[in-house]
Design a protein that fits this description.
- It is built from eleven helices and eleven strands.
- The chain has a single domain, classed as Peptidase S8/S53 domain (Rossmann fold, 3-Layer(aba) Sandwich).
- It starts with 9 loop residues before the first helix and ends in a 14-residue tail after the last helix.
- The chain is globular, with a radius of gyration of 21 Å.
- With 456 residues, the protein is an alpha/beta fold.
- 58% of the residues are buried.
- A seven-stranded parallel sheet has the order 2-3-1-6-8-10-11, with helices on both faces. Strands 4-5 form a two-stranded antiparallel sheet. A two-stranded antiparallel sheet has the order 7-9.
């Protein structure tokens, strides 16, 4: 689901595709004074057992019957000031970037494409294009601006004079263009519908995994009754399981009310966030309270700022209007996953997610269907001790928690008791060296790190 929104871009970003074509929706939502849009959890089942196989994830070709727009209308550039504090300030990114920037981590952005931008220079690769094809290296066109904004929230490099910076400004991005509200294809009934659906999303996930992604961001969502979601999303679920088995973190937007069918009927679920293999992210407003547009459900895992963001725009500038929606929130969490993967390279994908959840700022009443385990805290995720952090109040229907310790190592052989005294002496010296190393590490400035990048 695309949950980024601006007044200028809302109509172009709202997608709703037919279930027979496995729908997808990019949802951008305006802030609201109302409570988060919720579902009746008593009537919402857990996702079904995995029954399908993952798609091939081959290099994509042009979408059959694709109708391209006469001209593109990406989000406008400008210099507007967001009324809410920017996410970088709320997440204390300047402090987090002293510890990690996401260097060496590959984040796949499955979206409307990502346009080249000076603040992504040297860190953006084309991964494929399910709309127009183009072969290897395609995916670097963005007719709508959504994917470029999402990419900026994940990994935009900082620049003097503004507060636009990605959560992981050192990460490398892999752009896979999978959807685009400016493009249309014939639906099963012959009528035109926006290009991009659950079938191509499944293919895009597999392509991203096979391209070596460490983190996959899906700022898309569509809301459906559970039985329709189970029938239409089986291949997507299989693709997500393939990603988990490949040790990849997959992050998706929880959904925005009024976009992609979300909030239309009680008892709906949001895809792909409904699946246990995905980290589903809701939105907070200027504080840690749930934003009025965010879709709530027991599948929601975490929350992140969903208002007040400006990001990268097609053409090399910045978006004119502040963005709002869970697309932005998902992008911020994908960036945080990249930071944790760099800082703790020994952790598995599941352990990375558990660490982020365990260090989130918890809702006052415990786990919440709109906020999940709470609002993410990048600095805490990078500094909390010990290695294994419990995750209380786990939501029903999520996968088993595995802690945040490193991968298990094979058991060591028994120690020779005669060597114990020598080992203890060596340990003391080693501890002193490590303390010195940590002090040096804490003093590294962001400028000394490789460059990095943020969404809209």
């Amino acid at each position: 689901m695309r949950s980024l929104r601006t007044a200028a871009g809302l109509a172009a970003l709202a997608l709703a595709a037919l279930l027979a074509a496995a729908p997808s929706a990019h949802a951008t939502a305006a802030p609201s004074a109302h409570a988060a849009t919720s579902v009746d959890d008593d009537n919402v089942p857990a996702p079904p057992p995995l029954r399908a196989s993952a798609p091939a994830g081959d290099a994509p070709g042009p979408a059959p019957g694709l109708r391209a727009p006469r001209s593109c209308a990406p989000l406008p550039m400008g210099t507007a000031v967001a009324p809410d504090p920017p996410p970088g300030r709320r997440l204390r990114l300047s402090d987090a970037h002293r510890l990690a920037t996401g260097a060496g981590v590959l984040v796949a952005v499955i979206d409307t494409g990502v346009a080249p931008h000076p603040r992504l220079a040297g860190r953006l690769r084309g991964g494929g294009d399910f709309l127009t094809g183009g072969g290897p290296g395609a995916g670097l066109d963005d007719c709508d601006g959504h994917g470029t904004a999402v990419a900026g929230l994940i990994a935009a490099a900082p620049s003097p004079g503004d507060e636009v910076v990605g959560v992981a400004p050192g990460a490398t991005l892999l752009s896979v263009r999978q959807a685009g509200p400016s493009f249309s294809v014939p639906g099963p009934d012959g009528r035109e519908r926006p290009a991009g659906d659950l079938a191509t999303l499944a293919e895009a996930v597999v392509l991203a995994v096979r391209s070596g992604a460490d983190v996959v961001n899906v700022s898309e969502a569509v809301c459906l009754p559970p039985e329709r979601a189970a029938a239409g999303g089986a291949r997507l679920q299989a693709a997500l399981r393939l990603a988990v088995d490949a040790d990849v973190v997959v992050v998706a937007a929880a959904g925005n009310a009024g976009v992609g069918g979300c909030g239309d009927e009680p008892g709906q679920v949001s895809l792909p966030g409904w699946y246990d293999e995905v980290v589903a992210v809701g939105s907070t407003g200027p504080d840690d309270a749930a934003a009025g547009f965010t879709v709530a459900g027991r599948w929601v895992d975490l929350a992140a700022p969903g208002t007040g963001a400006r990001s990268l725009a097609v053409g090399g500038g910045l978006t004119a209007d502040p963005l709002a929606g869970s697309s932005s929130s998902a992008a911020l969490v994908s960036g945080l996953a990249a930071l944790v993967r760099e800082h703790f390279p020994e952790l598995t994908a599941a352990q990375v997610v558990d660490r982020i959840r365990a260090t989130a700022r918890r809702p006052a009443g415990g786990r919440d269907d709109a906020l999940g385990a709470g609002a993410v805290d990048p600095v805490a995720a990078l500094t909390a001790e010990p290695a294994v952090l419990g995750v209380p109040d786990a939501p029903a229907g999520t996968g088993a928690l595995v802690g945040t310790a490193p991968r298990a190592l094979p058991p060591a052989p028994p120690l020779d008791l005669a060597a114990v005294v020598g080992l203890l002496g060596a340990a003391s010296a080693l501890a002193a060296r490590l303390r010195g190393r940590d002090a040096d590490r804490a003093g590294v400035s962001p400028a000394a790190r490789p460059p990095s990048a943020p969404p809209r």
